[in-house]
Structure formats: structure tokens, C-alpha cells
Specification:
Number of domains: 1
Number of strands: 0
Strand content: under 5%
Structural class: mainly alpha
Helix content: 55-70%
Low-confidence stretches: none
Order of helices and strands: HHHHH
Mean pLDDT: 96
Largest sheet: none
């Protein structure tokens, strides 16, 4: 008999989902280029978005580690973190990954990344976020429900 595991059962680690979608978009772009911009200004804006996303990612990661819990969604969560970017969003790491993804897509100047973001967002929402929320509610009950009632899921 299998014992239940203490994790949300996400379908994959989120950075792998984002990296996979980006690789697919870039491979498709090699054979069928769909540029977003005609000049370099958009690419620089993309780079700024990616840097902003990396900053939020580092801030959120540090908040989780300072709160005594793991960043890895395949490991048990040991506490509900409400500091740092978790004051504003229940999923700042995923927002940060999305900013990085869009920023890199703009930097590489391809609409394919924007198109890949649609199924990626659906997979993230259904295969990661909703599973994590269900897990946290089951594990932490009222504490998580109170946090959820005060802080938005994304923005």
C-alpha cells in the first residue's frame, strides 16, 4: 500500500515547465520566425522585464527560506510564508517566472513565446497552483484560509 506523500503533487517543477515552453517557442521560431519588434528598443524592454522577474524571484526565494520552508514544490511545505512578496501575491515566484519568460521572449524577439504562454499559463494554473492551494488548505486549514482571504492569488 502506498503511503500518501506530504507535497502538493504538482505535475512538474515550474522552472522546467517555463524552460520547456521557451525552448519549444525558440525551436519553432528557427523554422518560422515571427518577430515582435522591428527595432532593438523592445528587446531592451524585454531584458528589463527579465531582470525585474529575477529580482522578484530572488526576493520570494529568500522569503521562503527565511520562513523555514522549501522552495521546491515537490517537497513538504513546513510553514505559510506571509513576508516579502508573499504580502502581495500568493504566487510571486510564478509571477516572477512569467516576467522572466515574457522578458526573454521579447529579448529574443519572437511571438512564439507569447503564444506558448497561453498553454503554459493553463498548465501552471491547473497543474501547479490549484494543486498547491488544495494541499496547503488540507495541511494548514484555517491559517491558510485566512491568508488566502487577505492576499490575491496572482496580483
Amino acid at each position: 500500500m502506498d503511503e500518501p506523500t506530504d507535497n502538493p503533487g504538482v505535475i512538474a517543477r515550474p522552472p522546467l515547465l517555463y524552460a520547456g515552453a521557451l525552448i519549444i517557442a525558440l525551436l519553432v521560431n528557427l523554422s518560422w520566425p515571427l518577430p515582435i519588434f522591428g527595432d532593438k528598443l523592445g528587446r531592451w524592454c524585454g531584458l528589463l522585464l527579465a531582470v525585474l522577474g529575477a529580482g522578484i524571484l530572488a526576493w520570494g526565494r529568500n522569503a521562503l527560506l527565511s520562513g523555514g520552508t522549501s522552495v521546491d514544490p515537490t517537497l513538504p511545505t513546513t510553514s505559510i510564508v506571509t513576508s516579502g512578496p508573499y504580502k502581495f501575491s500568493r504566487n510571486p515566484l510564478y509571477l516572477a517566472l512569467t516576467l522572466i519568460f515574457v522578458g526573454l521572449t521579447m529579448t529574443m524577439n519572437t511571438w512564439w513565446g507569447i503564444l506558448a504562454l497561453i498553454p503554459l499559463a493553463l498548465v501552471m494554473h491547473n497543474g501547479v497552483v490549484l494543486r498547491e492551494e488544495r494541499y496547503l488548505e488540507e495541511k494548514f486549514g484555517e491559517i491558510y484560509q485566512q491568508y488566502r482571504s487577505k492576499v490575491r492569488r496572482y496580483l
